[in-house]
Amino acid sequence: MIHDLVAGALARAGERNSGAIRRAAGLVLAAVRADALVFTGGAGHSLASVAETFYRAGGLACVYPLYHPDLLPLHGAATSTAAERRSGLAAEVLAERAPGPDDVVFVFSNSGVNPYPVELAEAAGAPVVAVTSRASVEAAPRRAHSTLLEQADVVLDTGVRPGDAAFPEDDPRTVALSSLLNVYLWNEVLAHVVTTAAQEGVEVPLWRSSNVEGGDAANVALLDHYRPRVPALR
Q1: What residues does the SIS domain cover (predicted)?
Q2: Residue 155 belongs to a domain with what CATH number?
Q3: CA-CA distance, 93 to 206, in Å (whole number)?
Q4: Strands, DSSP E only, in 56-214?
Q5: DSSP state of 202
Q6: How many structural domains is the chain composed of?
Q7: What is the domain range of residue 33?
Q8: pLDDT of 86-139, one tens digit each?
Q9: Is the pTM of this model over 0.85?
């Protein structure tokens, strides 16, 4: 029923962001060359996108997930909404491990106006890639002194309608697309990174699935290399 709706949203996102995807991939590849980290952050359901970036079969091993329990709806739905609106939480999260100039930071936020994602980008200390919706940012009530769009070096625009719902098209009330489009754009970046790296002879650190033969053994060296800098890998 929604195949054409979803396929169209994916196609438009790819076309709209072709240049930005290449720029984001360039930042990631620069971090890989420098043996640096890719920090990923978000709040609420955007944490699903953060989870997709971290310790994922076929995913980058050099990812540091930015996280606070209050931000996850499974730990309290109303609490998570309040947390992303709380100024100062981003500084608290970054105090545990701040990005350096060779790192890159991806911030996922559909509305891009709450203090947590805005302050995360503002205080990052590294290039910032925002994965957000320009239309949603423009329509959302301001809750911070700035927006994620204004704080980002590169913007990947999902094109999601304000409110996230996409169905029925004439009166959208369900079928939120932001998570799907976030993951799609992230994977577009990964594909560009791997393609460019192969052309340049750069090895990209990628996880193997632990549920295929040889997967665990292949991941040992990556765990040993990144675990001292990424506590979540313990």
Answers
A1: 28-200
A2: 3.40.50.10490
A3: 26
A4: 63-65, 104-108, 128-132, 154-157
A5: P
A6: 1
A7: 3-233
A8: 999 999 999 999 999 999 999 999 999 999 999 999 999 999 999 999 999 999
A9: yes
